[in-house]
C-alpha cells in the first residue's frame, strides 16, 4: 500500500489549503539558512524552493530569510502568491515537485518571521477596560471619558518582540504598593499575560497622509496571536502620567505563523454596537465588510485551560486602530506591528489577563500545580486560536507560548 502523502490531510485540519499561514524556518542540516515557509497540515513547505521548481515569477520574493520583501510587495503580489501556493498544494500535477520540499513542523526551527519596524499596542476590549477600571477606580467611572471616542494605544519596544517558544525572563523594576512608604527595586511579583491578536503591516504609507478605514486591506498583510506580557506592579507605579513603559517593554511574544487576511474572509463579524456617534474618520457604519473577526482564543497555564476570550467582542476594530495610528499623519512602514489589546469577554472564564481572572490577586485560580494569582517562575503560558473558514472549515492561528524564568 503506498505511503500517504503529507498533502492528504484529515478532514477538519486547521492548516488545510484554505489557511496556508506564512512563517520562517530553518532545518537541522542548515541551521543558519532561514527560509520562508508555508504551513500545510503538519508540514512546512519551502516556499522559495517550490516557486523556483515551478518557475514562479515570485521565486526571488519567496527565497528570502524574512517575510519583509513579500510584505512590502503589496496586495496584488499577496493575492497572486496565495493563489499559486493553493494550486501547488492541491493539484496532483504538482505533487512530484512539492512533496520533496515538505518538512515536518516538528523537525524544523521556527523563527520570528519578520523584522519588526514599530510596535503599537491598543486597549480595545470594553470588557477588559471596564474590569481594569473597576479594579483600580472602584469609586469612579470604569472607563475614561475618551475610551468610546477613539482607540487608545501606546508605543511598545519593537526590539523585544520575540517568537513563540522564547523563554521570558522575569523583569525587575521599581514597584510601590499603596501602603508602602517608599518604592523598592526588584523582580516583579505581579507578572501577567495579555491574550491579544496582532496585525502586521505590509505596504507602507506616505508620511503626512492618514490611512482611511477603506484602505485597511491595502496595508495589512495578516494577523497572528500575541501575548503582551505585563508586570502589573511595575506598571502601576510608573504609568502615571505617561502610560506603560518598563512594565510592558521587556517582552512581547508572537506566533511563528502569520495568517493572511484573505484566509479569514469567512470570519468577519460586526463589532459591538457603538454607544456614541463616531467622528467621520472612525465611522465604519458604511464600510463594505464588517471590521470584526470571529476568533476563538484559548489560554492555558501549564497545560490547563484558564480562559477562552472571544475576539468578536472587541469594541474597536483593527481597521479603526490602523486609521487612528495614522490620523496625525504618522506613516506606516513595512513590518509595523500592532496589537489589539487584551481580549476579554463578558464572562469570568473569558477574561484575557490574570489581573482580571484573579481580580488583582483577590481570587486565586486553581491549577494542578497550585493556586495562582500571578505567574510564578517555571510557569508556561500557551495561547491557541481558530476562526471560521470557508465551507464550514476552521482556520488555525497557531500558538504563542512562553515559559517564565527567574530574574537575572
TrEMBL record:
Q: Which residues form the Fumarylacetoacetase-like C-terminal domain?
A: 120-403
Occurrences of domain Fumarylacetoacetase N-terminal (ranges): 18-113
Please list the GO terms describing molecular function. Answer: fumarylacetoacetase activity
What pathway, per the record?
Amino-acid degradation; L-phenylalanine degradation; acetoacetate and fumarate from L-phenylalanine: step 6/6
| Keyword terms, alphabetized | Calcium, Hydrolase, Magnesium, Metal-binding, Phenylalanine catabolism, Tyrosine catabolism
The domain of life is Bacteria
Which co-factors does it depend on?
Mg(2+); Ca(2+)
| UniProt keyword annotation of Cytoplasm present | no
Task: State its Enzyme Commission number(s).
Answer: 3.7.1.2
Concerning PANTHER family, the annotation shows:
FUMARYLACETOACETASE
Q: What is this protein called?
A: fumarylacetoacetase
Q: Which organism is it from?
A: Streptomyces flavidovirens
Give the encoding gene's name.
fahA
